[in-house]
Amino acid sequence: MALPPEPINRGALNKTKERTMTRRGIIWLGQVCNLKCHFCYFTDRLSDTTHPEHGFMSLEKAKAICKTLVDFYGNNTIDIQGGEPTIWKPVYELVSYCKEIGLIPTVITNGQALADVGRVIRFKKAGIGDFLVSVQGLGPVYDHIVGRPGAHVRQMKALRNLQEVGVPFRINCVLTKDVLPQLHQIAELAITVGANVVNFITFNPFDDQRKKGKRTSENVATYKELGLHLNGVLDVLADNGVEANVRNLPLCVVNERHRPTVYNHQQIPFDLHENDFASWSWTGMQPQRMAGCNLTPPVKFGPKVWLGPSRTPFRWLGERPIVGPLLLGAKRKIDQFTGQHGSILRGKLTTEEMYRREARLRAHDQVGFRHVSACNACDLKLICDGFHADYDPFINEDAAQPVSVGFTVDDPKFYISQQLKVVYPADSCNIS
Fold it and tell me: Residues 74, 278: contact at Cβ < 8 Å?
């Protein structure tokens, strides 16, 4: 696929070092996709047609979710996810509706459908804010990772269409073992095609990827391998003025100069292109992710039950056919109660403190990040998630390299406040 020989002029992008709380919502339309990425969080739900989250919801339900995000949670931007949103027939109408109610939409996509320039034009007319295109490799490597011959060629056509029609886009890349040797090429691609931002996301053990056998030393890179490849790639992007972010990586893995790009759970609320924990807690509930279920009432953001050491048996029970729905339903009701009575339970915590508490709960209680022994000597421990617990069977703890800055860092914005981030027009109301 022929791409421009010289880098695209991105124009005068506004950028800022100011860090404010994100107001970006998220919606999952249903787990239906035209690709089969082996690292997908929802791989089992995509293949299991009987799963309650498989199948797209109605336009009416999607609109009701979006209206709640605006009216109840005060969101002003939204990530529209699927599965693959571009193959959901009413997607253009939803994009128009979101813009109409003040919820500027981003569509997260693999770009396959956007190889048809007519679809890109329809999205632009509907009022799309931008696209977040998942570039998981290049050439045959990409086709292998996503399970579809010819997928890379279609994606390159999609990027060309976005350039020519004038729709802004960012790039996502999951750091699987296969893609690491291509990271420099992906960075050069981003520079050439005019991507405004590149996000590198660790291969996380979330949702369906928690199951035994999904993640092995064959498909998951070691932390040392990640650091070795990322440092050079981040230099290339920085030298060319492209914003880069790395999600869910221990801060010690990259060099000091690149730590402003690393966003763990405590940093995510300060990225305007990441999702708001308050509304995410509601849209993440299964009734809001199913086609055939009524919406549950929205709840205020507040403290949740901290499972601590009991999280592993709780998860195991939660996956059992009969007791699982009962147990998760009971926890949901408790979380709703604590949200409704948050003013009493949160005491004098500020909004930022509440979000930080939520970040730690998500990282350590819900998805199982942990600090290894070397972390105890690290000055960054209080602002870092630590390591994926399931790396234990195939990675040594000596990947952790304690960082010394001369004092204990307790401000999640310590590094990220040094980063220049792109400000879209929809973000400007969040910046002073």
Answer: no
For residue range 321-339, list pLDDT tens digits in order.
666 566 656 655 655 555 5
Domains delineated in the chain: 18-278+417-427 (3.20.20.70), 299-409 (no CATH)
46-82 pLDDT, tens digit each: 777 888 888 999 999 999 999 999 999 999 999 999 8
Q: Give yes or no for a contact between 255 and 210, defined as CB atoms under 8 angstroms apart.
A: no
Structural contact between residues 103 and 71, judged by C-beta atoms closer than 8 angstroms: no
User: Which backbone phi and psi does 86 adopt, to 5 degrees?
Assistant: -70, -10
pLDDT of residue 116: 98
Nearest Cα to Cα of residue 129 among 93, 163, 167, 91: 167
3-state secondary structure 12-52: CCEEECCCCCCCEEEEECCCCCCCCCCCCCCHHHHHCCCCC
Contact 176, 203 (CB under 8 A): yes
